[in-house]
Amino acid sequence: MSFAKEEVILFWGVDCPYCHTVKEKISAEKLEEQVEIVEVEVQDAKENIPLFEEKIVQCNINPERAGIPLLFVENKCYQGVDSIVGKLKGMAEGSEEEIKPVEEKDLLKGKANTEKMIVIVFVFLITLLLFGYYRQGSKKEEEKNRQDSKRGEKKNRVGKKITVLLLLLLPLVFASKTYAFCPLCTVAVGAGVGFSRSLGIDDVIVGLWVGGLLVSSCMWLFEWVKGRKFVKKGSKKWWGLGVVLLMYALVLIPLKYTGVIGHPLNTVLGIDKVIFGILLGSVVFFAAGRLHFYLRERNGDKGYIPYQKVILPVGALWLTTIILYLVVYY
Question: Of 194, 210, 250, 251, which has the highest C-beta tally within 10 A?
């Protein structure tokens, strides 16, 4: 491929929704009539990937962290619908308004945000553990108060205050023996997914938390299904398989069609980063859950620590996040 001296190249992909948005805006503004734009597809046309890598290296961007759509012009790269369209409009109108190009330091902001996420999850786990011990202490104190008739009235007032506090915190402490993993697991992992994605953290780490969320949701839904009258004893394993396929399909298919999965350069060990992270997160979360049940069985059907069923799976994801953080950024 040969281009003019001042190359204006738009890298895009057939399965990238934002790429099509950029192309539609370019067409609506008739910018292609004022600026000579060379469109280069990089998802189906794998032979164009070396050119894409060449240009982003010129922009001092790590190839594995570059995304599409991407506009290359004047040895600078622009990402995002607004930045690309804004730059082309400025060129067409001869405007001197500066559109900020993509720089490596912008893409590496995920490093700092990953550190913040690690700290926040750590604080969550410690807070949950301390609250669990506090709750246990409160129960022991209440039992002691029941045996002390002289101070009973005063202590009952304290107990009522504690009860009100626990009711306010009920969404965070709800746990039921009916479910393999309580709803708190799903909430905690889901919050981690939303938080990490919003901060632009590396996709393999995002996928890790998605995998944990999927396992948690599958276990929760399967336990609910098992309690239905229409589920026969011999068919539970098939219902379980159906739940797993359904939950993973509901997540993976939309991710594929929205372009989150499928970027040709967004891979690790030859596997899409999101998919790799989901597989790893699923294994880690499930294994930590089984460890909880094993430890509980050895301890007379009681956990060694408060909220063990939450802390072990989420803590395992937290430790794996630290490992991935060191691999990705160092």
Answer: 210
In sequence order, the 6+-apart residues with CB closer than 8 A to the CB of 275 are 207, 252, 261
Write the DSSP symbol of residue 101. P
Distance CA 75, CA 57 (A): 10
Task: Report the relative pairing of strands 8-12 and 70-73 from DSSP bridges.
Answer: antiparallel
List the helix and strand counts (H, then E) for the chain. 12, 6
Q: How far is it, in rounded angstroms, from Cα 317 to Cα 172?
A: 19
| Residue 157 confidence (pLDDT) | 54
Could you say which of 107, 122, 139 is where a domain stops?
107
β-strand partners of 272: 267
Quick check: helix, strand or coil at residue 57? helix
Please list the residues that pair with 79 across neighbouring strands: 70
Q: Is the peptide bond before 69 cis (omega within 30 degrees of 0)?
A: yes
Domain annotation covers residue 1:
no
Query: In Å, how far are 36, 203, 211, 239, 290 from 276, measured between CA atoms?
Result: 39, 9, 9, 26, 21
**What is the reported pLDDT for 159?**
54
Cα torsion angle, 313, 318, 319, 321, sign: positive
Distance in angstroms (rounded) separating the CA atoms of residues 145 and 197:
48
User: Which of 107, 125, 144 is the endpoint of a domain?
Assistant: 107
State pTM to two decimals: 0.63
